[in-house]
Model the fold of this input.
Amino acid sequence: MAPGGLFSTAAVAVVVSLAVHVALNSPIQPVPSPAPPAARYTPNNLLQVSCSSSTPPIIPFRYWVLIDVRYTQGLEKLGEGLLREPEDVYVDAAAGGTVYTATRDGWLQRLRPNGSWEQWRFVGGTGLLGIAPSADGSMLVCDADKGLLKVEEGRVTILASTVEGSTIRFADAAIEASDGTVYFSDASTRFPFDRWFLGYLEARRTGRLLKYDPRTGKASVALDNLAFANGVALPRDETFVIVCESAGYRCLKLWLKGDKTGQTETFVDLPGSPDNIRRAPDGSFWIALIQLRSPWLDLVSRWTFTKRVVTAFPPLLDRIKATAKGAMVTHVSEDGEIIRVLDDSEGKVINFITSVTEFGGDLYLGSLATNFIGRLSLAKLPRVQEAVPSVDIYSQYE
Done:
């Protein structure tokens, strides 16, 4: 056989072998990913110039769109080395600002006002994610593997592990309403927490917003067909509930009261993938935006075929996933208008922020990529004078 014929035969064999490997080993059934965010921002690393005065300068917003956290020289690392991937943070004002978090070693841990850390409650497992207070003094915990939990002294109760006959596969975040109803998210019905990136990349809308009724002890589906359901929050008047769609680059609101009861609409479109959302003291909201874009990730996400190929080779998937770096949070008004965006564009000080909580003039930052909780003083940030413009940040990926 001629050399050219041998080469052609070998090439065909390689292609067939690859196709068979992908068909047998890719765990996803992908669909096209949603379009990248329409809202675009240009970082300027303004805080490379630290503020020496007690009153930060007023900076026109046309120059201050993304704030690079790594240059603030003011990000404290609380509990560094003691905390294993603290995904969510809750600050109890009634307890003098006690800070609570859940870590990968199965503990609920807290930072007392005197600065001492305590392993407060042991739940077990590696899937403890969102935490929220309950009116009865207990703590609501989303265990990605077990469901919605109620944690109190000496006892852990599973409130909901199934909903309408189906398993809650990926309990993620929760919030309790004033009537005791708990709204919580189930990120994916196909993939558990330890395989979350497969669910995100697959892009199937299998996420759900769930509702737990303490009077009946049962959960129901409040909203389905969500693109990786994540953070959950309520406004002060509780007229609607907000749920974040990580793979949809937006937050939705489901109306609970009034003429629009039962209707759903977009609360805010975002320049990243929203994770947890927390209401601020003034009624506005802080949202953590996980950064899941890079030239490689954008390339892979463009076609369903490339998604299947990459996921068939786990080491390759891990390397491509690691190309997404950076941290971002955004401040959003009660009406869903972006007020400001803060970022660490290369993840030099903190990476992969998954939650942001405002308390006492500080932001508390949780992350699945750190061994600490970040604390940043809002007083050290420049004040804002103008509205947010839309300018390009992602052109480098196109």
